[in-house]
Design brief:
alpha/beta; six-stranded mixed sheet; 10 strands; two-stranded antiparallel sheet; single chain
Length: 219
């Protein structure tokens, strides 16, 4: 099996990614979404955890070579970044969502030593805003960010534009189109449900508004 499909299948099987087009999840923004992704679930499954770790390491070396350091993005990327750093025999640091409110007020945690460049590990890319904020925090420490590797991306155009504008290359182990195709093939979804998920990614705001309006009309 193609490795990108294998990652998608594993995340579906262990319910790290859940699909519910008829009873969508509510995001913090209030938008309704037919997909919920929590890749931290994979940490509880040794075989899946090992496979993802191996694929992250391979992606780092194949795409960027061996950096001086690995950085994880809090919170989802911390464990994965530490696994990758351990496997590759590299120093590790992590980036907080915001600077610590006490003590030294750090945002980047760890001993940067003599590192001059870093690869960033993330678990999930949506808009890319929080991930790229971490990139800027590392650049503020005068580290060259060679790029980022993430487990999964929704593949929003906004994210692609944000990464391009930030001049930060992005590599992912799997993505939304592969996930939807794999879910339909393995009968996690019917054809109409797969179409609903594709429609959501094209315009998640309009999809959420249509769903909310349909529920109100049925009521």
């Amino acid at each position: 099996m193609d490795e990108r499909r294998k990652v998608a299948e594993s995340l579906l099987r262990i319910k790290a990614i859940q699909l519910a087009p008829e009873d969508p999840f509510t995001w913090a923004s209030g938008l309704r979404s037919p997909i919920y992704c929590d890749n931290r679930m994979a940490l509880s499954h040794p075989a899946v955890r090992t496979h993802i770790r191996q694929q992250l390491c391979a992606a780092v070396e194949q795409k960027y070579g061996k950096p001086d350091m690995i950085a994880g993005v809090a919170t989802g990327g911390i464990a994965w970044g530490a696994y990758v750093a351990h496997e590759l025999g590299l120093p590790f640091c992590y980036v907080r969502g915001e600077a610590k409110g006490h003590g030294k007020g750090n945002r980047v945690e760890g001993d940067l030593g003599n590192a001059s460049n870093v690869v960033v590990i993330e678990d999930l890319i949506s808009t890319g805003n929080s991930s790229l904020s971490a990139v800027e925090a590392l650049r503020d420490k005068r580290l060259e960010v060679k790029g980022m590797v993430a487990i999964f991306t929704y593949g929003f155009d906004m994210a692609s534009q944000n990464f391009e504008a930030a001049a930060c290359p992005l590599e992912t182990l799997s993505d939304y189109p592969i996930l939807v195709a794999e879910a339909e093939q393995r009968e996690y979804l019917t054809g109409p449900q797969a179409e609903a998920l594709i429609s959501w990614r094209e315009d998640m705001v309009a999809w959420s508004e249509r769903f909310t309006a349909n529920v109100a009309n049925r009521g």
